[in-house]
Design brief:
This protein is an alpha+beta fold. The chain has five helices and seven strands.
């Protein structure tokens, strides 16, 4: 299985993102600071959400790679179901690859929850398949998929860990690939 199979998980492609999150309102959440296991002060919940939304809006949708340097710890671990390059450079490489596959990619925050030093988001991603993806040549089809991401903030206000899962089979079904047809037999 190629490393491109999970590429959708973290980042998206060009265009303008909108966050229309169905998140808990500021009045429903306290603004207290959490702490990390080492006792370091964590970002406030609202700040965590704002920073996490920038990943969807600026990094994924707009393709602004400088945002990765600003928001992610240099040694950030992206936990995927397949081997992936570590750190910010690995994330940037992944974003570039994904944007080549879906140049009009949009990432919208649909739901988000922040607790302690962690924020969880449900994103809806969409884009037109105009470049090879997961070994599938460009089809010109517009696809939409969900992604769930969990980001943990570090003591320097940068994310140190990112876990993500996405509907890979759903994307391949929308691309109507031979691989999916064979799996359905």
């Amino acid at each position: 299985m190629s490393s491109e199979w999970g590429s959708l998980v973290l980042f998206g492609d060009t265009g303008t993102a909108q966050s229309g999150a169905h998140s808990e309102s500021d009045s429903e959440m306290d603004d207290g600071e959490g702490t990390h296991g080492d006792g370091a002060s964590a970002m406030a919940r609202d700040e965590l959400k704002i920073r996490a939304r920038r990943i969807a809006e600026e990094l994924l949708t707009q393709g602004d790679l400088a945002v990765a340097d600003e928001l992610l710890d240099p040694a950030c671990t992206h936990n995927l179901p397949y081997p992936n390059a570590h750190g910010v450079d690995g994330v940037k490489s992944w974003v570039v690859t994904l944007r080549r596959s879906f140049p009009d990619l949009r990432a919208m925050v649909e739901d988000e929850i922040a607790e302690g030093d962690t924020v969880v988001q449900r994103l809806m991603l969409s884009g037109t398949h105009e470049g090879e993806f997961c070994g599938v040549a460009a089809t010109g089809r517009h696809v939409t998929w969900d992604l769930v991401g969990i980001l943990r903030g570090g003591p320097d206000a940068k994310f140190t860990n990112y876990w993500s899962i996405w509907d890979q089979l759903g994307v391949l079904r929308q691309l109507d690939t031979e691989l999916v047809r064979e799996r359905n037999r």
